[in-house]
Design goal:
Blueprint lengths: L4 E4 L10 H9 L2 E4 L3 E5 L2 H5 L10 E4 L2 H13 L9 E4 L2 H6 L10 E4 L9 H5 L6 E6 L4 H8 L4 E11 L12 E4 L2 H10 L9 E4 L2 H9 L15 H61 L1 H17 L1
Length: 312
């Protein structure tokens, strides 16, 4: 299937250096950013009902920029001054650098996974096993928490924001060749907004175990996902686009060969017809010349020649 238009269910990147923009230039595709879900922060009143007391924790595990935004928002609403001693453990360098929006980066104890994978953050957390860990999350917990559980990391999840469906307008088209999902809530929103999703001929890309499970439960076939070779969604999409391009080029070469074969056959047939026509013409000419030289033809033509001579 040819891929010309891709919908990525995330906000548009703020940096022009995003790998998605590189994909547009390299593969000539159009990428549209439109979240299937939107985030709503819990109010300080709602958060207090969770009985989580932020000052009790000496370290924060951060898996998304959204988590950073709502952590500091709630701290402000709760009138809690975040201490300089608080340690930050981030799942990627990008998320770690986002902390600069709220803290002086070089003066804080900030750690992150070099690979962008939660699995590679575990050894760093293990070295700081005396810390008390808090992990800001949405009401839909992601698979990164599962990694912590599997490695027996002692931490507390604090729901600080929720995800809700970002409804499409009535009659709004979804004319994309590929849809990219990052959360189970995004899958749910897609199903809700487009009940005919099973009949749609579209390539589905999904990231995260819980997202893949949500797609499977909905009967949605996932064609693109991250792998050890392509750990980012942009990388996984590029692998797929390369495969599609290779198949298209293969089909183009096949079509070109078939066209060349047909052209050769046409030319051969034309050459045969031309040769046959020339042969037939030569045969007719030879026959005519032969008949003209025959005695019978000369005898038949004699009276006509005499008559012509008398007229002269």
């Amino acid at each position: 299937m040819s891929i010309k238009k891709i919908l990525v269910s995330q906000p548009r990147p703020t940096s022009e250096k995003s790998p998605y923009f590189d994909l547009e230039k390299k593969y000539g595709v159009e990428i549209v950013f439109r979240p299937f879900i939107k985030v709503e922060g819990l109010s300080s009143k709602e958060f207090r009902q969770s009985k989580v007391n932020i000052p009790d924790y000496s370290a924060i595990i951060l898996t998304a920029r959204t988590a950073i935004d709502h952590f500091f928002r709630l701290c402000k609403e709760l009138r809690y001054n975040v201490p300089d001693t608080l340690k930050y453990f981030c799942v990627s360098e990008t998320i770690a650098h986002y902390l600069q929006k709220y803290v002086i980066y070089r003066k804080r104890k900030i750690f992150y996974s070099e690979s962008g994978l939660m699995e590679d953050l575990i050894p760093i957390i293990a070295k700081h096993n005396k810390e008390t860990y808090l992990m800001p999350v949405s009401d839909v917990h992601n698979d990164k928490a599962v990694v912590l559980d599997n490695n027996k990391v002692k931490y507390v999840k604090a729901v600080m924001y929720r995800t809700v469906s970002n409804d499409f307008k009535p009659g709004e088209k979804l004319d994309y060749d590929m849809l990219v999902f990052f959360t189970p809530a995004g899958i749910k929103s897609y199903i809700t907004n487009f009940p005919d999703y099973k009949e749609r001929n579209v390539v589905i890309a999904a990231m995260g175990q819980t997202t893949l499970e949500a797609a499977a439960q909905a009967g949605i076939q996932v064609d693109v996902t991250v792998t050890p070779e392509a750990p980012s969604m942009a990388g996984a999409i590029e692998v797929y686009l390369k495969k599609v391009r290779a198949e298209e080029e293969k089909e183009e070469r096949k079509a070109a060969r078939e066209a060349a074969k047909l052209e050769k056959e046409r030319q051969e047939q034309f050459a045969k017809r031309s040769a046959a026509a020339k042969k037939a013409a030569a045969t007719r000419k030879a026959k005519a010349e032969s008949e003209a030289k025959s005695p019978a033809t000369k005898k038949a033509a004699a009276p006509a020649k005499k008559a012509a001579a008398k007229k002269k």
